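seq as requested:
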Amino acid sequence: MNQFVKTDIDQGLATITFFTEASNSLPGVILKELVDHINAAGTNEAVKLIVLQSGGDRTFCAGASFDELAAINDILTGKVFFMGFANVINAMRKCPKIIIGRIHGKAVGGGVGLAAACDYTMATTHATVRLSELAVGIGPFVIGPVVERRMGLSAFSQMALNATEWQTAEWAKTHGLYHEVFDTSALLDDYLKRFTTILLNSNPLALKELKTIFWSNTDHWDTLLESRAAISGELVLSTFTKEAIAKFKAG
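struct tokens:
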């Protein structure tokens, strides 16, 4: 399968791009690479600002890899897989650099978690959102804390329980997931270029302090997200979930 994570650095701006052929869904190897690239950009003195985006022109991120979910046969393997998402979220919150999310298309499940873990997000009107985990018997446990922190309990509970309905990009903006929404990717990229230029010319020490403030009171998330990964790792073994994933894969 054609899949990758890459980082391009240009005049202080690190652009991290991930891609998989399966609608940018995230297998374990890509989750680990995302952590490595985020950590590397965060510690690189030449990097002042980070943009996180995905490849292609349709889906931003379809969430967890259903092939890997279907292959999980024990609790430990399940926990390890979901810890992949926990590790990405924790890497993003701990990164000392501001992370801007470029959300050009649909965000599902873990994709919503990635968007919520960014410090600032720009999207197109095509960037509809859905937390589909309950529909396959799991629930958005690992990404729950970051989505709730960003959007509030009411919006999170709506998405978590209404797992089959898409919410519009404007709805996501109203509830705090997106900061800006544009009609086209071209308009998004034009604004992104102007916005990043302003931040690259801002005081990096001030940006670092703002990052710290943005993520205050999350020091316990290493433990919290691990406990949530254990819940998902156990639920993915249930008969309900195994059958639901099989139906999904069968189309």
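The chain is about 50% helix and 15% strand.
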